Amino acid sequence: MLYSDKENQAGGSPVELHAVVNTVAALGLSKGTSDSGSLFEISGRKIASTRWVRSSGALLKPDTSFTPSAVLKKWDDIQDMSKPAYPTGPVDVAMALAGLPEMSPNQSAQPISFAGQAVVVTGAGAG
Question: Least crowded by CB within 10 Å, which of 25, 64, 65, 120?
Fold first, then answer.
């Protein structure tokens, strides 16, 4: 049996290279596989696959009523996973935004203010 020369970080069993090779070969040679874009973790004697899960989310109108407070008001809808979707590609934005012109302005929760507080902004759209 082939093993890697390093043991996994948790101090468990070494990764068996034949498991990696067999998994790559099975995915690469299979016709009609639906695992494109999947992430696989191969560790020890276990192989695990992840899948994307997306909430139904919330649609907010991108006008002057689109504020952090409006996002906060919809936050429960944004993270509600009671009706999940298991996407195989990106969201169909054209379909999602079809009713946008008829939408009413966003409702806001209590205004969010950082007055008198130190705020650190990372990223800031650079990159």
Answer: 120
